[in-house]
Amino acid sequence: MTNELVYEGKAKRLFKTEENGVLRVAYKDDATALNGVRKESFAGKGELNNQITSLIFSRLAEEGIRSHFIRAISETEQLVKEVSIIPLEVVVRNVMAGSLAKRLGKEEGEVIPRAIVEFYYKDDALDDPFINDDHVLYLDIATTSEMEKIRDAARSINEVLKKLFNQMNITLIDFKLEFGRDAAGSILLADEISPDTCRLWDKETNQKLDKDVFRRNIGNLTDVYTEVLNRLKQVQN
């Protein structure tokens, strides 16, 4: 096993492996907010997100959604196909919350009749600004055809995830996706899907089961992530 670091982000490290085109992802215990301005470490967080992401990506594969995920190899690590990340954060919104509610002057919790798909330019120095299709083309991030593929994939993923979280008695409020191009130029789902990247509310109590408990200082992060994992394991069995 090689320890040559390829990339380190806020929540994960990527290492080369002895197999060409395959990387090892090691999940960190760090939690960040405000694009890294606030940062803390929570023992066990990396293990929780690795397990949650592995289970969710496996479910997506069963539903025909292609991703970079290969398999989990330890409590905190997984193998993934090497991709070139497209610098877009793709946000899918089912319920008004967070920045969208503020931007449009709406109350949090209002159901959106048709899911909204948004693009944000993935650049921490610019605070990941909201951009439209013309910006994407100007920045040479993706072609019109690729944007269509990404939007279609995001909506398909949303349908699978809504059904899955509904079985867990959780409302999928919104979530962030990232995509990458493999060696052949095909677009694959990448990164992770976890309470770090989703807003999740308990259907009965509206308790927040995601990173908002850290952002807003309203709960224990590892407690709610553990709750999500436990519910996910129950519906997977």
From TrEMBL:
- Reported EC number(s) for this entry are 6.3.2.6
Q: Which Gene3D superfamilies match?
A: ATP-grasp fold, B domain, Phosphorylase Kinase, domain 1
**Which pathway does it serve?**
Purine metabolism; IMP biosynthesis via de novo pathway; 5-amino-1-(5-phospho-D-ribosyl)imidazole-4-carboxamide from 5-amino-1-(5-phospho-D-ribosyl)imidazole-4-carboxylate: step 1/2
| Swiss-Prot/TrEMBL catalytic activity | 5-amino-1-(5-phospho-D-ribosyl)imidazole-4-carboxylate + L-aspartate + ATP = (2S)-2-[5-amino-1-(5-phospho-beta-D-ribosyl)imidazole-4-carboxamido]succinate + ADP + phosphate + 2 H(+)
- Report the domain of life of the source organism: Bacteria
Query: Could you tell me the keywords of this UniProt record?
Result: ATP-binding, Ligase, Nucleotide-binding, Purine biosynthesis
The SAICAR synthetase/ADE2 N-terminal domain, residue ranges: 6-231
The answer to whether keyword Membrane applies is: no
The cross-references to PANTHER family, in alphabetical order and at most eight, read: MULTIFUNCTIONAL PROTEIN ADE2, SI:DKEY-6E2.2
* Family to which the UniProt record says this protein belongs: Belongs to the SAICAR synthetase family.
NCBIfam families for this protein:
purC
Under what name is this protein listed?
Answer: Phosphoribosylaminoimidazole-succinocarboxamide synthase
Q: What is the lineage of its organism?
A: Bacteria, Bacillati, Bacillota, Bacilli, Bacillales
Name of the gene encoding the protein in the UniProt record:
purC
